[in-house]
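Troubleshooting: if your tokenizer reports a length mismatch, compare your output against this known-good record of 137 residues.
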Amino acid sequence: MGLLDRLRDLVKKGETAVLTPDTPELKIVAEAFDPVVADSAVLAGSPAWVSTAPAVLRHHLLLPPGRLAEAASVLAQDGYELREESPDGGLTRVLAVRVQVLDALHCAQERSRMAGLAQRLGGDALGWDALQPEAPA
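Known-good structure output:
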């Protein structure tokens, strides 16, 4: 086996499936919609969550329709994509979505950040959930 073959093998070994918000067969592995329950408790109480694997983190927000572009611009600075769900009264239900490895500290920081953003824009942060691919049986 030549040097080029060994390099190809190394590169192929390093290839892993890339997780995106649209990856098929994602399932909710943790969710936090009760502000009284700590994010650390949510993650610790989730047997399906794989702490070392990336997850799709989705923050559920209610925002005024006229402020969606502003929200999308602010969120994009940190790698979030804003996805419209549906109207809910005078507000629009949206998801702020990105892929990351979850830990309690960052979940709590992001939850707080989303609450602040939603409040500044005249909306509300409902909570978050995390999705990971279903483990092979």
